[in-house]
Amino acid sequence: MAEPVSLSTIQFLSWVANRPRSFAEVREAWRSTCPRLSTWEDALSDRLVRCEQSPGKSADDCAVTLTGRGRSLLEAHLRTEENRQLRTEENRQRSAAD
What we know:
Elements: H1 7-18, E1 21-22, H2 23-30, H3 39-45, E2 49-52, E3 63-66, H4 68-97
Antiparallel strand pairs: 1-3, 2-3
Helix pairs in contact: 1-3, 1-4
C-alpha cells in the first residue's frame, strides 16, 4: 500500500482489533455502495485483514482478524497519534509558561 492510510481504514482496523468479528457482522457494518468508500474491501485486498473459516462453519461465520501487516499498521498509527498528542501538550505547556 503505497498511498497514505485513510482514517476510515484505521477506524476499521481498530474496530476489528477490538473483539472477534464474523464476516457477516463486518459485511453488515462496513458495506457501502460508494466506490470511493470501500474500506472493508480495500483492507481485505491490501491483506490488512483475513477471514479464517473453521471446518463446518459457513462463510458468514468466518472470523475476520487482523493480519500481521494490519496490526503493524494500526500500532504504527497509534504510536504516531500518541506522539502527536504529547507534542501538542508540550506546546500548550510552553505557551502557558510564556
